[in-house]
Give the backbone structure.
Amino acid sequence: MHVIVVYDVSIERVNDIRKLLKKYLNWVQNSVFEGELTLGQMKELEIDLGKVIDKETDSVIVYSINNAVWIKKKIIGKEKGSTENII
Amino acid sequence: MHVIVVYDVSIERVNDIRKLLKKYLNWVQNSVFEGELTLGQMKELEIDLGKVIDKETDSVIVYSINNAVWIKKKIIGKEKGSTENII
């Protein structure tokens, strides 16, 4: 499935979150990663995220779409990261 | 259609971008807005965004999905903004 992850975490955890997300997904913008994951990988990622963040203050949103063709992506301005697997 | 907008813009334009996005969408996290728009509204928003940003340095990504039920949303940690129209 196609997965988009956006995060809003305290500055001291940004590096850890980025390292974790890079293992699974492509960086697309400041605090946004996306890519294709199996259901198993997504569950793993969610568990790992739960270990890294402070649930009282940090927020991570995982959007998932079964079929990448269902989602359209338009970039206005500069393209900062990877756009693999999606138009 | 269901729309998710993520932005990565220079600090001096953050307020203008937020004001613009608030006219169309709900704030969900730091630099993320989402909501339901008609195709006409989405085109208007894209034109307005193009006027506000510096296309050489800023980046705004507009994801759109025709049917909100095709996208699943999971929040890990704190829920910061609105989650209208989506589970």
The beta strands of chain A are 2-8, 26-29, 32-36, 59-65, 71-77.
